[in-house]
Model the fold of this input.
Amino acid sequence: MAERAVERIGGDNLIIENLHYSYGGKLSIFEGLNLDVRPGEFLAVIGPSGCGKTTLLNLLSGFYSPERGSVRLRGKPIAPEDPNLGYVFQAATLFPWLSAIENVEFGLRMSGMPPKERRERAQRYFDLVGLSGFENYLVLRLSGGMQQRVSLARCLAMEPTLLLMDEPFGALDAITRESMNDELLRIWDELGQTVLFITHDIDEAVYLSDRIVVFSRPPGGIYKVVKNELPRPRSGPTTRTADLFWKYKKELIADIAMVTAQRPTDEAELAELKLSTEIERKAEKQASRDTEN
Amino acid sequence: MSVAAKDAVPKQRRFKLPEYSWSWLSIPSLLVAWMLIATQFPSYILPQVWDVAHEGYIWIADGELFPHIWASFLEEVGGFGAAIIVSMVAGFLAGFFKGFREYMVPLNGLFMAIPPIAWAPLMLIIFGIGYTTIVIVIFISAVNPMILTIMEGVLQIQGQEVRAARVLGAKRWQLFLYVYLPASLPFVTAALRIGFSQAWRALVAAEMIGATQGVGWMVQMGGEIGNARQVLLGIVLIGLFSYLFERLFFRQIEKRYEVWRLA
Done:
């Protein structure tokens, strides 16, 4: 298997410094967000919907540009096309006209890797996510969980050092999600990337991470950072029943309740939230269209 | 870019009889009705089915049928072919660039509001009777709906797929070649289909006005000399070619992507 990503990263952190961002100058999302992620760290980000989690990933991946402040990996800002960057989206977003293995090969093909070499590499990651035997399936014929595995393999095959994951297992049922969590930990243990994992599932955040960042409603930014001292390697039956697991879980439930209680109560705030949803939708549409314009 | 994964698609027998359906009755019932009605008229007004078949045999035996079909075919290829090229370029540009889209759409609307055959007299004045006139009329009729269909399709391509491709390192030209093009296959086929049928209608109409050969001319000339058999033969041929093209060409293209589109 490939050299562990953590060695390739060297000692450089992912540094988010004084990050400012708002939707169209109207609704402020981040006002001076600071966060250091050390190489090889598994960071979970949790918070109520609409708190800017996905916006954060859009900023980290360079789809959006910060209004002030910076995001740097190895001292440089990140572009979406950066080979160090991997991004697993909420939906699998596979290419339906390609077979499962061809989807995994896609990025390698874009980088000009010869067919034989890229098929070998793709096959390795295909096997790693436990899909062996489904190479030639059309992706739309695979189940939701398997599609998300293909998406993960497609991302891993590029061997990124920074892995951004936006509620990747959010659409899966609880049992599939738990097994995907175990797969992810096994792969992360083997490859050692820096992972920024967004979720709204407390169990998932506690089970996976080294640190948990709780976001509050905008423009609050970080509400709290919890250091997760659960021992590794983790496994379902042991970790999920440990006292420490429950301690974190209780703590986070209380935190999320606190953060959610800041919900808009009066009409003005509600109107603002509606506006933000609308603007975010437009911004995302724009971001994807900018590609060609 | 292979439309791959053939292994995973259940194999079908190549030549399978179609499922029993009421559609088996449609054409035969039409023929029966024709025959019954034709018994009430003299043959020079409404000929029988076999009279028309015999007319077809005479045209074939004389070696006259094929040149007419070939002439129509060449006109269709010229006008529809040019429309494919222009609509692909204009449709994609209109899909990508807002400015071009805003400029283009009113023009499409205007041209689509005018029945294409209305251009034929003007083209006759400019180019005279013959190939060029007909090809231009066909082109005008096909290109506008095709541009709009392709443009709508490009606008519908999911931003998420494009984002995913960018994160995987796809450069601009690669996005076009490996994401936009394959993703556009379904609506490009739809555009081809619409364009073809529009072109074919315009062709027949234009041949009736400004041609010396072709299936449209056959119908027109049959009417002028009072040969009802020739008129009906022409109509049958017009329908038959459109149907064959649809079955043999567009259905085949569609089969290639419907697996992944509808899976």
Summary: Chain B has one domain: 62-262. Chain B touches chain A through 41 residues (CB under 8 Å). Residues 62-262 of chain B form a domain with the MetI-like fold fold (CATH 1.10.3720.10). Residues 173 and 242 of chain B are 36 Å apart (CA to CA).
